[in-house]
Write a structure and sequence with these properties.
By secondary structure, this protein is an all-alpha fold. The protein has seven helices and no strands. Helix 1 packs across helix 2, helix 1 packs antiparallel against helix 5 and helix 2 packs across helix 3.
Length: 157
């Protein structure tokens, strides 16, 4: 892993929470749908250390983040109330993290992890109150995934 300061590590650690929240609000549904999506994202992040055993960034994230910490990161963004303000804050945190990441294989894997996280979240529920009907991924959610992929790939050499 590149030698990151603790402040830089914190910016990188905020990226998954921002991707998680941005994925949930890409096409907000009921509270039940939002909770299903949040839990799918949280599980994906929890399982990341097993799925990415050789990536020190993800191992550091796994050691330093848990559900209460994730809620601490997300809560202030939700308190903004306005979905556009929340999206803007999520984008700022993703952008700040991208500017911090080194240009190396480990960072590229971390970016792939972020895209996989977003895909897991938007696939967690479909339409309807319980998220059990219709398409799993809406047009707005697909646009967010495509935008995230573009944002992350444009920061690669």
């Amino acid at each position: 892993m590149a030698n990151y300061t603790e402040e830089q590590k914190n910016r990188i650690r905020e990226m998954p929470a921002a991707v998680l929240l941005n994925s949930i609000i890409a096409d907000p549904g009921s509270a039940i749908v939002g909770m299903r999506e949040f839990m799918a994202g949280e599980k994906f992040i929890s399982d990341a250390s097993v799925n990415f055993p050789g990536n020190a960034l993800i191992q550091d994230l796994s050691k330093n983040i848990n559900l209460p910490k994730m809620e601490e990161v997300v809560r202030p963004m939700f308190s903004l109330g306005d979905l556009n303000a929340i999206r803007t804050e999520c984008q700022r945190r993703i952008r700040d993290g991208l500017m911090t990441l080194a240009q190396d294989h480990e960072a590229d894997q971390f970016k792939a992890f972020l895209v996989s996280l977003a895909e897991k979240v938007v696939n967690a529920a479909g339409e309807g109150f319980f998220g059990t009907k219709g398409q799993r991924v809406s047009q707005n959610e697909q646009q967010y995934i495509d935008s995230l992929k573009q944002q992350l790939s444009s920061s690669m050499p």
